[in-house]
Amino acid sequence: MHLVFLSSDMASRLCAVVGPHALQKHRIHVLPNSSNLGRLPLRVAVRDERHLVITGRVGYQKNYPLAVRLMDHMPTNYVLTLCGMGTDDPGFQERILREVAADTRARIRFGGSLRDVRAVLAEADGYLLTSRYEGVPIGAIEAFECGLPMVLSPFEAAPEMVAAHPMAMCLPLRDLAQDAKRITRLIEQYVQDRPRAAARIQAAWRLKYPYGVWQSRVRRLLLDILAG
């Protein structure tokens, strides 16, 4: 079989666990994720509001309850939009709003499934991902491509993504009051000089996750498989 991994580290750990004998008949490939959103729509007029976005389907993995509980500790001009399959379900919304204080509920918004996430990301001031586990999440790479600062939970690929990103942090999200202060400082720093900060982030994305390089790697992988 041709075994495809999202990072060299993931491939190495599998090899260490199963041993070389079990893999001698198989081929190992590494194909990191990328994104390809292209040009963003123009932002609406500047607001006093700060807008955080989290993307992903509803489920245990994404840990939406933790994301909204963080908002209890964020400044009152911060709002959070949850986007993804299931976030427009009334039952989910009722459950998630029970996680936060009454005066926080108006600052939690629900985007549902989006055919095009660019409009939401264009209006955002930061991207949040509170997942319990991830591979290399494309939603975070898309936010990176859009030039947004990122706040990630400590899932497997988070340290590598943060190291490549000029305005990102990986937080334990256990002391939410302290984490909220750090997030606020990051977002306010970004907003003070958004055009320059966004350009720096997008330049870093082009170095780490360029779509053209991903396409070349896919072609090489396909040719390798077909040659066999």
Outline the fold blueprint.
Elements: E1 2-5, H1 8-18, H2 20-23, E2 27-30, E3 50-55, H3 64-71, E4 78-83, H4 90-97, E5 108-112, H5 118-123, E6 126-129, H6 138-145, E7 150-152, H7 158-164, E8 168-170, H8 176-192, H9 194-208, H10 211-227
Parallel strand pairs: 1-2, 3-4, 3-6, 4-5, 6-7, 7-8
Structure description:
This protein has helices at 8-18, 20-23, 64-71, 90-97, 118-123, 138-145, 158-164, 176-192, 194-208, 211-227, and strands spanning 2-5, 27-30, 50-55, 78-83, 108-112, 126-129, 150-152, 168-170. The strands form 2 sheets. A 6-stranded parallel beta sheet has the order 5-4-3-6-7-8, sandwiched between helices. Strands 1-2 form a two-stranded parallel sheet. It has 10 helices and 8 strands. β7 (150-152), α7 and β8 form a beta-alpha-beta unit. It is α/β, with parallel strands linked by helices.
Tell me the number of helical segments per DSSP (H or I, 4 or more residues long). 10
Please give the alpha-carbon distance between the first and last residues: 10 Å
User: What strand line-up does the widest sheet have?
Assistant: 5-4-3-6-7-8
Which structural class do the helices and strands define? alpha/beta
Strand content: 15-25%
Any idea what the radius of gyration is? Answer: 19 Å
Tell how many strands the DSSP assignment holds: 8
Spans with pLDDT under 50 lasting ≥5 residues? none
Listing every helix as H and every strand as E from the N terminus to the C terminus, the arrangement reads EHHEEHEHEHEHEHEHHH
General shape:
globular
- Share in helix: 40-55%
Biggest β-sheet strands, sense, barrel: 6 strands, parallel
Give average pLDDT, whole number: 94
